[in-house]
Amino acid sequence: MAGRLEGTVALITGASSGIGEATAVAMAAEGATLAVAARRRDRLEALEERLGNDTQVLVVETDITDEAAARGMVEATVREFGRLDTLVNNAGVMLLGPIVDAPVEEWERMVRLNLLGLLYCTHAALPHLLEAALSEPRRVADVVNVSSVAGRAARQGSGVYNATKFGVGAFSESLRQEVTRRHVRVSLIEPGATATELASHVRPEVLEGMAATFGNTELMTAEDIAESIVFTVTRPRHVAVNEVLIRPTEQER
Ligand SMILES: NC(=O)c1ccc[n+]([C@@H]2O[C@H](COP(=O)([O-])OP(=O)(O)OC[C@H]3O[C@@H](n4cnc5c(N)ncnc54)[C@H](OP(=O)(O)O)[C@@H]3O)[C@@H](O)[C@H]2O)c1
What we know:
Blueprint: E1 9-13, H1 18-29, E2 33-38, H2 41-51, E3 57-61, H3 67-81, E4 86-89, H4 104-132, E5 141-146, H5 159-179, E6 184-191, E7 194-195, H6 204-214, E8 220-221, H7 222-233, E9 243-246
Parallel strand pairs: 1-2, 1-4, 2-3, 4-5, 5-6, 6-9, 7-8
Helix pairs in contact: 1-7, 3-4, 4-5
The chain binds NADP nicotinamide-adenine-dinucleotide phosphate (NAP).
NADP nicotinamide-adenine-dinucleotide phosphate (NAP) binds near residues 38 and 191.
């Protein structure tokens, strides 16, 4: 059976681990050609190998907090494959902790990646997505922004992460209204707790508090989120899934 993404090109940021990596595997299974981007080239090359000969893959080692690098990533994709149908803005970092006495450097890292990086990638990709939306095989294109439950509800201990993900939500809705009649769909994916490397960057003393909250919860897997992303981008042309809020069953808030 032909994959539902045959003949299309997707660019996935943060594809070296977690949700981005699982999304690459799931989109490849639907026949998409892929550009996979992150800073850790070795992990991207391992992913390329895992995908095998059936999938065309471009590995892009890049730091998307650099505007020129983000633009270069998009241009390299279009140079290699001739088009861009789907941008998955997935790269992100979550550095939790109280606001009082927080290391300001952590805030800067989150704003630079979760917000500015996503904006740079989107800005560079939009002209190509608008063009792809005019052509076969789908005559529709997609921007998928990976936000979080933290983009819907602020909590003590995650103020600046909340601020970046609320920002992603506001930007997504504004962009959606701007381009939807031109058949570029803008979707927001809002996962709850998912087992990935994300929490490994949190300071140990903060991590202890998180263990108290999520210690007994059966977390989602990266594949669970990848499945909802594939669902979103494989809808018929006249259907736009604007928002997917997805939590582990046992997660209350
Ligand atoms: N896991 C959860 O519970 C959860 C819940 C809600 C939302 N999310 C969101 O899901 C997204 C993916 O996170 P994850 O859970 O899959 O965590 P992850 O495994 O830590 O993945 C984060 C990805 O971002 C990439 N990245 C980090 N800095 C980058 C930079 N400067 N330039 C380019 N890529 C960079 C990392 O690759 P390199 O280090 O190789 O660059 C990695 O591939 C994030 O936006 C996160 O906020 C996760």
